[in-house]
């Protein structure tokens, strides 16, 4: 049976999320990413791209190209929440869904044409996603994942393309070889050295020549250029871990800053757990020193999503881990072994007071931003890149929280 594979991609996803939060960002050059000297661009609006800004570019270079752009630090928790909204709609409507990333999805509609027009159905689904989430999304449809993904790239921004069976090679032929998945910058330079810049030239090459030059990857590229891809759709499953990392602008041994960073990460991740109705059973802390040596420690705990349990566990791991007394480049916290569930109070805790406190804090965060309410010991230079503090139109000061659970 001829396969029908659809590929959805949320256009400039992080930028679109920020614009949904604040419509005044519409039509302006918006750049999302770390704002320190070592920061990189995570996403750039099409307006910013017209200045030459693109993802993975150093923020420093982006500011030289687009000095008048709006630079936003971004909030992974907010983006995950909006991604989940889209995921739930697609899961409801597609027989098989693969979530390739936070903003990219594959669906298998094979056999649907016996009952419905698959392309028409997908167009209606795309409209539903935009209507219910306010996020622009594009899709490509073809008999396989590679051609559908390339088609989505050609459809952007905010459009759709269908490549009928038998026309895969014709569709791909005039495109740059750079648009084929698995052709990175180094491979593209190799192709340029061979005088090859477009897909049609690869289509004319013997596969033996490709493998001789590029090894095993040569056959994969040759097949993809010829519209051949039998890779299956891998059904989506809920993630089993969440994490946060910070790379410091300057390597540090400031123990106060390090403690603040770890506490802020653990606090924010605990909130993400509660917002997603998740509990964690494993806490991991990672440290990367200035010589790039990386170490981590983890501990298994009873299932929980409580700040006052998770923060001390993370701090304990860090204190046991940090023994080289060298400058630190990066620290990270990860919660894994996730399962569905709500935070349960301990029989020996102060009954409902703790649960009610978390509910009140989380309600404020959902309404006004992840860091509207913060513990006093997570305020400081060590937490300045944790969470969403970059939107220039949303300068809500945090409510400091200091209570017995530190």
UniProtKB/TrEMBL annotation:
It is found in: Cytoplasm. It is an enzyme of class 2 (transferase). Binds 2 magnesium ions per subunit. Residues 5-184 form the UmuC domain. The active site is at residue 104. Monomer. This is DNA polymerase IV. It comes from Dokdonia donghaensis DSW-1.
């Amino acid at each position: 049976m001829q396969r029908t594979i659809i590929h959805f991609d949320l256009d400039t996803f992080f930028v679109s999320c920020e614009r949904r939060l604040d419509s005044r960002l519409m039509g302006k050059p918006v750049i999302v990413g770390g704002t320190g000297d070592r920061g990189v661009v995570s996403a750039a609006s099409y307006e910013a791209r017209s200045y030459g800004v693109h993802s993975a570019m150093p923020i420093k270079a982006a500011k030289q190209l687009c000095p008048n752009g709006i630079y936003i630090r971004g909030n992974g928790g907010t983006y995950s929440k909006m991604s989940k909204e889209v995921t739930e709609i697609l899961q409801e409507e597609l027989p098989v869904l693969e979530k390739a990333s936070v903003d990219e999805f594959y669906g298998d509609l094979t056999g649907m044409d016996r009952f419905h027009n698959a392309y028409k159905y997908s167009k209606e689904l795309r409209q539903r996603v935009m209507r219910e989430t306010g996020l622009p999304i594009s899709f490509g449809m073809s008999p396989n994942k590679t051609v559908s993904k390339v088609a989505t790239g050609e459809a952007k921004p905010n459009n759709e393309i269908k490549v009928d069976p038998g026309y895969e090679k014709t569709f791909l032929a005039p495109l740059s070889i750079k648009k084929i998945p698995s052709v990175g910058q180094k491979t593209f330079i190799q192709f340029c050295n061979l005088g090859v810049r477009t897909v049609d030239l690869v289509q004319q090459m013997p596969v033996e020549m490709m493998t001789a030059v590029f090894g095993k990857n040569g056959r994969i590229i040759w097949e993809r250029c010829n519209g051949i891809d039998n890779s299956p759709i891998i059904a989506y499953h809920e993630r089993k871990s969440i994490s946060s990392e910070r790379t410091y602008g300057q390597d540090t041994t400031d123990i106060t800053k390090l403690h603040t960073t770890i506490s802020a990460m653990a606090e924010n991740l605990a909130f993400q757990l509660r917002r997603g109705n998740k509990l964690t059973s494993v806490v991991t802390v990672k440290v990367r020193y200035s010589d790039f040596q990386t170490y981590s420690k983890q501990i298994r705990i009873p299932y929980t999503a409580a700040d006052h349990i998770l923060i001390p566990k993370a701090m304990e791991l860090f204190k046991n881990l940090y023994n080289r007394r060298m400058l630190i480049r990066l620290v990270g916290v990860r919660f894994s072994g996730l399962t569905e569930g709500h935070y349960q109070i301990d029989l020996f805790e102060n009954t409902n007071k703790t649960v009610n406190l978390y509910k009140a804090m989380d309600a404020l965060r959902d309404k006004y931003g992840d860091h509207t309410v913060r513990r006093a010991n997570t305020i400081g230079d060590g937490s300045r890149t944790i969470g969403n503090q970059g939107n220039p139109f949303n300068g809500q000061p945090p409510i400091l929280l200091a209570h017995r659970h530190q």
